[in-house]
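Before any further analysis, backbone shapes were mapped to integers, which produced the following:

***
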Amino acid sequence: MSDNIILKEIYEDIKIFEFKRFADDRGFFSEIYIKDIIKNDLENFEISQINYSMSKKNVARGLYLQINPPMGKMMRLIKGRAIFFAFDCRRKNYKKRDIFQIELNDKSNLFVWAPFYFARGFISLESDTLVEYLCTGRYNQDGEYAINMFDQSLNHSYKRNSFDISQKDESAMSIDKWFSLNIDL
């Protein structure tokens, strides 16, 4: 087994994998995905789709979750700097409304995994921020839900007026609306 990818931290069901970067005066090389190693810590992980985004500075994307088919996401920052968010949409989080967040930069060498029942998003802190998503399900617009990242009941300090967001994200549902749907995850 390679030790080039290790499970670095776990926050409830969120797992953070670190991959080694081998650098010299020519640049660097990294093994970023080794199926057997990832499957050791994520038993049913199968990549169905890989997504890639570029964002300008101060763009907010998300929060999104897809439950049909279920789409877990393993995200990594390739270039720039961003704050990744993950909100547990299961009923057990109804009262506390904690949201996981981690700031990454292009030297972090991390993948952040969250299962399908987490709504995911990020805020770019630099221009040309590149994010890659390894997804466990194929995209289905009818199975996707958007939750407002700037809902006042979420436990984070970021305010809507500081960020550029899409119309879809602007009209995303509140946390209360999400929980009123009574979807059992």
User: Anything to note?
Assistant: The chain has one domain: 5-180. The CA atoms of residues 94 and 140 lie 25 Å apart. The mean pLDDT is 91. The longest helix spans residues 35-41.
